[in-house]
Every structure is written in structure tokens, then in C-alpha cells.
Design a protein that fits this description.
About 35% of the residues lie in helices and about 30% in strands. The chain has about 375 residues and is an alpha+beta fold. It has two domains: about 160 residues, Gcn5-related N-acetyltransferase (GNAT) (Aminopeptidase, 3-Layer(aba) Sandwich); about 200 residues, Aminopeptidase (3-Layer(aba) Sandwich), CATH 3.40.630.30. Strand 6 and strand 7 form a beta hairpin. The protein is globular.
């Protein structure tokens, strides 16, 4: 059922079928086509994210998607979602929204209002967003760094969205930072000494992952992650099904020497995962893998030359937090990945993040290797 039209003819309705879902996905391409820094996502990935038949996130969450229309054409979209794990870890009554795109402020306001109404109908007392769809996908609204394209698995939106969201009554709850790093230069002498000291310690081993055992390795890494991040704001544990799903999706795009596991006295205690910047490899595909895009992407991955790489995930077991060993292992993994990235893949830039604004230990590591904040993503909230 559609909302009553506004004086301008704007309506907002829930999507109902595959045809609507195609409009929902394609709308991002229409609204961002003229933005030189927007990178078209792979449409198959977006459809897979939205589909309960393929995304195990839906085993503990529910979502509804809405389209704003005017004059017979789509002018905006939004998702509204309730996640049982969010309710457990971020507070009862916490509903979320995301997948937000709008042509103008009227459409933006109407979409947010409709998402809030859906959340209220499920007894939510607070709306938080954007999350597209979870904090593990694309969290936050880009509020700084619109002048350059994002790296793999990070979002990009029009700068005007910030004023539209805030006009709807939303206030900041948390900022997420990404850090840019020129990897062609050695790290500062102090960091080099810390790395060299670790290399002399027989209790420390920094190894690559074994792609032949990737499902097992992925479970190890994400198990460390669930422990390492368990006290972080916004942390939602990945389920076994989600870990398996993530491992399956990551396997084709990972390179063994860009993922490092730190062992101390034979026990895996930390890891760092770096992905090639797939945005550089897919940008000209216009979101389409078929009929020729898949072959192009496979060839580019096989060629294994990419200027940028991003560290989306790293973790150190919680019991080591705040210790010198934790920092030393982090510096060692970053340096080993930097060496491999430059020597084997032609990397010039690295990106670390996202990092919570109040995660001071990680921010101090980023500062120590002379990386600089290049983008800020903001998460907003509003009482319902």
C-alpha cells in the first residue's frame, strides 16, 4: 500500500517483488552517475546482500525496503531493519536504517519518516543509521572525504545528505575514521626498531595464511576478531554462518601474503587482513559482471597489480590489549604486509580502517606510522 501523495506528488511505498528490488538497486547508479568519486558496486553483490535466501544476516534480523517515487519514477530509497543481535549488544529498542539515497530533501525526509514508522511498529524506541545493512557492511554517512573515491567495502554519498539527515532530527553518536598511508616509504626509525626487536624474539612468529585451508583460516581470523572487538562500541558478533559466508566471498580476492597471523609461543593471538582495492579493478564495469565483466575481473586479479590496498579487519586477543606485545605485533604485521604489497603487487597507497574515534590504541598505531585521516563516516541516532 502506498502513502498518500504529497503536494508535489511524492509517495513512499515498500518494495514488493524482484522488479521493485531491481529499481531499488539501480537507483544508486542513477543518482550518483555524475559523481566522479562514486564507485559503482557490483550489482550481484548488492542483490545478494538484500536477499534473505543468500545473506545469513537475515537469520537474526529482518529488513524492509522502501522507494520514494514522484511522477512515475524512483527518486529515493531506504532500508529499515531490526537485528536481534543489535538489540542484545547495543540496547533494547535500537532499530536501524540504511541503503539511503535521495534526489532531494523532500524525498529524504519522507523516506526517513517511513523507516522510523516501520521501526516504531516493531516497538523500537531509537533509530540509528545509516547501516547498509549491518555494521559489518557499510556503516556510517560519509561527512568528510568526498573529494576522492572510497576503497573496497567503504561507502560514498553526496555531501548534502549530512544536512538532510540532521534536519530530520538526527545527532551524532559515533564517528569512524579511515587513515591513508603512503606505503612506498619506510616507517619511522622507532617503528623499524620495534619490528626488528620482534623479529629477534623466538616466541613471535608472523605467518601468512594458507589459502588451501582458507575456510579454516577464515574461521580462525574471525574467531580472533570476535574476541578482540567484543568490548568495542557497536560490536555485533559474527555468527558461524556469517563467518562461513564471509570466507566464501573473500577467498577469490585475497592474497596469502597480504593476510598475516601473529603467533606467540605457538598460539595465534592476532591477525591483519588486507584486501586489494577492488574498486580500482571494478570501477569501469558499471556494476555488471556479465557478459564480460567477470572475465575482466578475474584477469585483473590474476595479474595481481593494484596501487591500493585496505586493512578492513585486524584484531589482537583481548587479554593482550594495552600491552607492548599487542602494539609490537600490530607494527610487525603492518610492516610485513607493506613490504609484500610494494614488492609483489606494486602498491603505493594503503588504507587502515574504519577505526572508532575513541579507539585511542589503534589511532596511536595509525599516527605512529605517519598515516593521516582521509575520510570520516558518521553514525547518527534519534529517539522515536
Amino acid at each position: 500500500m502506498s502513502d498518500s501523495p504529497s503536494p508535489t506528488g511524492l509517495t513512499v511505498r515498500a518494495i514488493e517483488d524482484a522488479k521493485d528490488r531491481k529499481v531499488f538497486v539501480d537507483l544508486a547508479f542513477t543518482l550518483n552517475r555524475d559523481d566522479p568519486n562514486w564507485v559503482p558496486p557490483l550489482k550481484t553483490e548488492v542483490h545478494g546482500l538484500l536477499d534473505p535466501r543468500t545473506n545469513p544476516w537475515f537469520e537474526h534480523a529482518a529488513a524492509r525496503y522502501f522507494l520514494a517515487e514522484r511522477g512515475g519514477r524512483a527518486v529515493g530509497r531506504i532500508s529499515a531493519q531490526v537485528d536481534e543481535l543489535v538489540l542484545r549488544h547495543m540496547g533494547e529498542g535500537t532499530g536501524q536504517w540504511g541503503m539511503f539515497e535521495a534526489e532531494d530533501e523532500e524525498a529524504a525526509a519522507a523516506l526517513i519518516h517511513r523507516a522510523e514508522a516501520w521501526l516504531r511498529g516493531r516497538d523500537m524506541t531509537r533509530a540509528m543509521g545509516p547501516f547498509s545493512l549491518s555494521i559489518w557492511d557499510e556503516p556510517g554517512l560519509l561527512v568528510q572525504g568526498h573529494d576522492h573515491p572510497p576503497m573496497v567495502m567503504m561507502g560514498h554519498n553526496k555531501a548534502i545528505y549530512q544536512s538532510w539527515v540532521e534536519a530530520a532530527g538526527y545527532t551524532k553518536v559515533k564517528d569512524l575514521y579511515t587513515y591513508d598511508l603512503d606505503v612506498t616509504h619506510d616507517f619511522p626509525p622507532l617503528i623499524e626498531r620495534i619490528v626488528a626487536s620482534g623479529e629477534k624474539n623466538p616466541k613471535i612468529r608472523i605467518r601468512t595464511v594458507d589459502k588451501k585451508r582458507f575456510e579454516e583460516e577464515a574461521a580462525l581470523l574471525l574467531g580472533i576478531l570476535n574476541d578482540a572487538w567484543s568490548d568495542n562500541w557497536g560490536f555485533i558478533p559474527l555468527t558461524e554462518a556469517e563467518i562461513a559466508y564471509a570466507g566464501k566471498k573473500l577467498k577469490p580476492i585475497v592474497f596469502e601474503d597480504l593476510i598475516r597471523v601473529a603467533e606467540y609461543e605457538g598460539e595465534p593471538v592476532a591477525f591483519m587482513l588486507t584486501l586489494p582495492d577492488l574498486n580500482l579493478l571494478t570501477r569501469d564495469l558499471d556494476g555488471k559482471l556479465f557478459p564480460t565483466g567477470w572475465a575482466k575481473l578475474l584477469w585483473r586479479l590474476k595479474r595481481a597489480r593494484f596501487e591500493g590496498g585496505r586493512v578492513p579487519l585486524m584484531g589482537v586477543l583481548k587479554r593482550l590489549h594495552g600491552t607492548r606485545l599487542a602494539s609490537q605485533l600490530a607494527f610487525m604485521m603492518i610492516e610485513y604486509i607493506r613490504r609484500a604489497g610494494v614488492a609483489r603487487y606494486g602498491m603505493k597507497r594503503g588504507e587502515i580502517g574504519w577505526i572508532l574515534e575513541d579507539n585511542l590504541p589503534m589511532r596511536s598505531i595509525a599516527d605512529a606510522i605517519d598515516s593521516k585521516i582521509n575520510r570520516i563516516y558518521r553514525i547518527y541516532e534519534k529517539p522515536l
